[in-house]
UniProtKB/TrEMBL annotation:
<dbReference type="InterPro" id="IPR050490">
    <property type="entry name" value="Bact_solute-bd_prot1"/>
</dbReference>
<dbReference type="Pfam" id="PF13416">
    <property type="entry name" value="SBP_bac_8"/>
</dbReference>
<dbReference type="InterPro" id="IPR006059">
    <property type="entry name" value="SBP"/>
</dbReference>
<keyword id="KW-0732">Signal</keyword>
<protein>
    <submittedName>
        <fullName>ABC transporter substrate-binding protein</fullName>
    </submittedName>
</protein>
<feature type="signal peptide">
    <location>
        <begin position="1"/>
        <end position="26"/>
    </location>
</feature>
Length: 434
């Protein structure tokens, strides 16, 4: 169930649906005093299929061998990752839910509001956990309200600048560096654009989807802007937001150096075919580029005043309180073990994902993946620039739709950045208030 295009799934299921399901709960009490040697059975929904599921099943078997008193009932949990949230909600109502489940990061606040999650804040303070080795965005995602920590990072990614060497060479333009500013980026995009050959310097989604929205967040953050105010209302219709969107508008409308993609998928195909010079995307693109034989390079995003912040879409292993202290203890121990570098090399790295921890970058296992997918190491190091996390509030879906629609219109020459963001903020606030 690995998402082949990108890892930005959001859902319209509201927190109220999860909280409301608690009214039907009836449950028994499990062990109330910890006995680490007691026999326990853990239910683990992985959200994976095929090779990914096989890898995790093998790791579960290894954990059982290390801890004979622990039995792990491991399965994908649902026919698709997207269905896990509804299945969890139904399980809360019937008091039958797993100890551990894969979850998109966008679900974190909704899961926490169910009052079923396990708070592991105290446990992760143990230096042996190495909590600080996870990126700031990953840590923020599993602490959605800034209070309890409800699980472990499961998958990390980010968007980096991918450039087509063939297009750059044909235009006689120097390749990007990790010190580039957005002004240098814009200048290069103009030079790479050739209307006669239908070649563009850059590409941007105008579908109005989350692809449109999340590509905008690094621009906002680098200018010092925020997505939400402290009171939970939309903050992006600020001077910083206007400046960020106006920059993109100038590239798309004035320079005409941006391919505006209505589909979210065609720009990658055109890049692979040497028709687009630069795109901002993530590790999921590298396999297709290598398969196509595209000559490409990868570097960090251009920066604003030296700030090269990116956006990440971390997914999580959510832990749930089953009212049994022995189960809760071993749920934590299993995820602590799984996310340790030794096991993450066998899971995320072996499967072609970015490593969860920076300490894995120099390992032979990850370097072998880099040899197969050049640029993967740059993207792994770029996790250090994933400072902010996208909000995990239930209203984010409506917020994303509101600003995504307005960004799309502005980049197509309809309206101003200031008016568009004000209109988006008004709609976003309605969604956030629901």
């Amino acid at each position: 169930m690995r998402r082949s295009s990108r890892r930005i799934a959001v859902t319209a299921l509201t927190a109220a649906a999860l909280v409301g399901s608690l009214a039907g709960c009836a449950g028994g009490q499990g062990a109330t005093e910890l006995d680490p040697d007691a026999d326990v059975t853990l239910t683990w929904w992985t959200g994976q299929s095929d090779q990914a599921e096989e890898i995790l099943e093998g790791l579960a078997a290894d954990f059982e061998e290390l801890h004979p008193n622990v039995t792990i009932d491991i399965s994908s949990g649902a026919s698709s990752t997207e269905e896990l949230l509804q299945k969890l909600s139904a399980g809360f109502a019937g008091n039958s839910y797993p100890n551990i489940s894969y979850a998109f990061g966008a679900w974190a606040s909704e899961l926490e509001s169910s009052q079923r999650t396990l708070d592991i804040t105290e446990q992760v303070s143990d230096p042996d956990v190495g909590w600080d080795e996870f990126s700031e965005a990953a840590r923020s995602t599993v602490q959605p309200t800034g209070e309890g920590i409800i699980g472990f990072p499961a998958l990390v990614d980010n968007i980096s600048l991918i450039y087509n060497k063939t297009v750059f060479d044909a235009a006689g333009v120097d390749y990007p560096t990790d010190q580039w500013s957005w002004d240098e980026f814009r200048d290069a995009a103009k030079k790479l654009t050739d209307p006669a050959n239908e070649t563009y310097g850059y590409a941007y989604s105008v579908s109005g989807s989350e692809e449109t929205t999340w590509q905008f967040w690094p621009h906002l953050w680098q200018h010092g802007g925020e997505i939400l105010n402290d009171d939970g209302t939309a903050a992006f219709a600020s001077d910083e937001g206007v400046e960020a969107l106006e920059f993109l508008r100038q590239m798309a409308v004035d320079d005409k150096s941006v391919y505006l993609d209505q589909t979210d998928t065609k720009f990658a195909q055109l890049f692979a075919a040497d028709r687009i010079g630069m795109m901002t995307s993530g590790p999921w693109q590298l396999y297709d580029l290598n398969t196509a034989g595209t000559e490409y390079g990868v570097t960090t995003l251009p920066g604003t005043d030296g700030d090269h912040q990116t956006v990440s879409g971390p997914d999580i292993w959510a832990l749930f309180d089953t009212q049994d202290v022995n189960e809760n203890h071993w749920s934590f121990e299993l995820m602590k073990w799984l996310t340790a570098p030794e096991q993450d090399l066998r899971w995320n790295v072996a499967y072609g994902n970015l490593p969860l921890r920076a300490s894995e970058i120099e390992t032979p296992e990850f370097q072998a993946q880099v040899e197969a997918l050049p640029g993967l190491d740059v993207m792994a190091e770029n996790n250090a620039n994933a400072v902010n996390a996208r909000p995990t509030v239930a209203g984010y879906v409506g917020l994303s739709e509101a600003i995504g629609s307005q960004i799309s219109q502005v980049l197509q020459g309809q309206g101003t950045a200031d008016e568009a963001l004000k209109a988006a903020a008004e709609k976003a606030n309605q969604a956030l208030a629901d």
